[in-house]
Prior knowledge:
The protein is globular, with a radius of gyration of 22 Å. By secondary structure, it is α+β, with helices and mostly antiparallel strands. The protein has helices spanning 41-52, 58-61, 77-80, 108-117, 131-151, 181-192, 204-222, 244-251, 313-316, 321-326, 356-359, 395-403, and strands spanning 88-96, 122-128, 156-164, 170-175, 229-233, 261-267, 333-336, 346-349, 366-372, 384-390, 407-411, 415-424, 427-429, 434-437, 441-451, 466-473, 490-496, 503-513, 517-524, 558-561, 564-568.
Amino acid sequence: MGHGHGHHHHGHGHDHHHGHETTAPLPAALDTSVPDEALTPDQQSRRSLLRRAGLLGAGLATGSVLGQTAGAAPAAAATNGRRTKGFLWLAGDHHIHTQYSSDGKYRVVDQVRQGAKHGMDWLVITDHGSTTHARIGVEKVNPDIKAARAAHEDTLVFQGLEWNIPAAEHGTVFVHPGSNEVSVLKQFETDYDGSVKGASDSTPANEALAVAGLAFLGEQIKRRMIKDALMLANHPARRGVDSPHEIRAWRDATDPAHQIAVGFEGAPGHQAAGLPQPLGMGRARGIYDNNPGANSFPGYPLESYRTWGGFDWMTATVGGLWDSLLAEGKPWWITANSDSHQVYADTAVRGPGGDFNANGRYEDPVYGGRIDVTQGDYWPGQYSRTHVGADGFSYAAVMDGIRAGRVWVDHGQLISGLDVRVSGAGKWATLGGALHVKKGSRVTLTADVALAGGPNWAGFLPSLARVDVIQGDVTGPVADQDTFTAPTARVVKSYEVNQTAGTVRLTYDLGRVDRPLYVRLRGTDGNRSAVGAMGAAVDPAGPALDVVGDADPWLDLWFYSNPVWVLPS
């Protein structure tokens, strides 16, 4: 039934790489034993942001379902039991461009400074894979990343790249920092990037090259060249070129105990692109305004090329492609990020002179003398956030949390915290985990939703109107690798939220469970909804199709969680 995932979500299998790291001290802004007056201005700003969001002090330290009962947890507790206060929920962004991208502008330190200002704990610099980047960009950006790490010690800054996946779309690839981070990324890009290799068309040979690239990264970990590597597919439905069988092939390309390809963007970046003219670009959220092309998967419907409530069709459709992957009982997670290239309402422009192809970068940005509302991006953390449950403040802990699926995402700071626990027979599991119980055991889902703790960047306090519980059966591996539906997935319960501050506790009784299943959560501000693609019996009030040219992202806010499995035996 494909339940084997249960054993590798939790132990991570590589604790030897980072045993020294998980006890790293908290950043000063997060450490309540450090008085306010001892903080730098940057740290004070970070602390006040966390306070406003209700994420400092007890809320942060105990904001996890590991709580005081870690010993009662399933295998997840094995690596975290020593932390009686549970996970740190660290917000981040894995898709960010700089002046080392042919369509970028900002310095690394600009993106990191802005990310820190907007509450980001971890960031991945992902300049575009290209012949120029492979030749000189990978090396040249590295000192800037190291300088940003030194200047912003409270922010974890990974080096990665945006991979042109052979035969498919783009993907974030990033590695644990170390002495070989540049050499491994350079070799990966040189040998396996679709643009560098001229391998963009949807052919079996190019699809095989993508799988080989993931296997190469796995091999670098086994050889101890790098401590870890991850891949997340970016804007997967934007051009229709990520077919279901390719996504499954990436997921299954490496040893499941140390999977490299672990998920895709549930919501793309470029969210400001939907702001109507004259105050915005007047395009589509995510710049999802494409149509099928020669390399597109022919089975995808036309509506898959648009966002739904700012989310990718693969994630937004209950009973759709994401659910079809989860129904196999195998891990596949969602994220959300900025894809920040050129920021909405910014005043900076590219510095004059220079030669990108010769230098691998643009000149540093300069003041442009006007506010530019024709750009479609936000700074990291300004609108989209990916929250990772980590067992410490370290690079390895963030990567472990992503691989384990301890991830939830939100837009516009709709909520400030989410703790999910599925419990039964004296045990429980959280996001990304699996609860193993005897057949017929009574199982309960409990979610503590911390409402918005203060105004977001747009200047208003978001209000959560409703939370949906989505449930589907685990039906095992599919015979047709291009399956993108899950007939049993549906919204099983909706909760109206009638308070505006504090924490809401939701409880859903799954009854006596006699078959393997999973549950996941979704929440909305209630501004826009529509019957889902599979009909009202499956999703009576899901996200609505975004209108190209008129889709203000601040008027349509959602959060999504990754799933928890229940596996009776």
